[in-house]
Design goal:
By secondary structure, the chain is an alpha+beta fold. It has two domains: about 120 residues, no CATH class; about 45 residues. Helix content is about 30%, strand content about 25%. The chain has five helices and ten strands, in the order βββααββββααβββα. The strands form three sheets. The chain has a six-stranded antiparallel beta sheet. The longest helix is centred in the middle third of the chain and has 17 residues. The two termini are about 25 Å apart.
Length: about 170
């Protein structure tokens, strides 16, 4: 989909706009309501930072070793860009577990459930124990440059929750 100049983006992150290699991050969410995503304000629905972080990590399927997610980074698009908008899929929780391993694990759980349909709830409980479920929306925008995007604010999630700072 084509996103127009002025489209506002955000992400929960410990990093800044560019990574250590100087590349601008590709993974964003819409700051304001967009399609089925209610926007950032709807996600900040808790005064308990730890609870909010758990929910964001689960819905965004961000493994612990990828990102501490302690800040909210916002940016504006300066030029039209194409992006892919969709729902985030699940990820394994742990560093040493691959998606291929989890896919195999999921297959084993499905086979067990087919043999004994009453174990469907147990299968889902096991899957939840080993994965971050995803489900939040996300926009993937590849090959962003300084000409395409302008960094706005990077504020502490604690400050946003407490009302000491705003990003809207």
């Amino acid at each position: 989909m084509l996103l127009q100049p002025g489209f506002r983006l955000y992400k929960f992150t410990k990093y800044d706009l560019k990574n250590r290699a100087g590349k601008i991050t590709e993974w964003w969410s819409p700051l304001r309501s967009f399609k089925w995503d209610a926007g950032l304000q709807a996600r900040i629905n808790s005064t308990n930072v730890q609870e909010l972080m758990r929910e964001i990590r689960r819905a965004s399927a961000v493994r612990d070793h990828w990102n501490d997610m302690t800040h909210i980074l916002t940016a504006d698009l300066l030029k039209p860009v194409y992006g892919f908008f969709g729902k985030i899929g699940w990820q394994p929780r742990w560093t040493d577990v691959t998606i291929e391993h989890m896919t195999s694990f999921e297959g084993v759980l499905k086979d067990i459930a087919k043999r004994n349909p009453t174990q469907e709830a147990q299968r889902e409980a096991q899957r939840a124990r080993f994965t971050y479920g995803g489900g939040a929306s996300q926009i993937f925008i590849d090959k962003l440059t300084d000409a395409h995007i302008k960094r706005r604010d990077k504020v502490s999630l604690n400050d946003v929750i407490s009302g000491r700072a705003t990003v809207l």
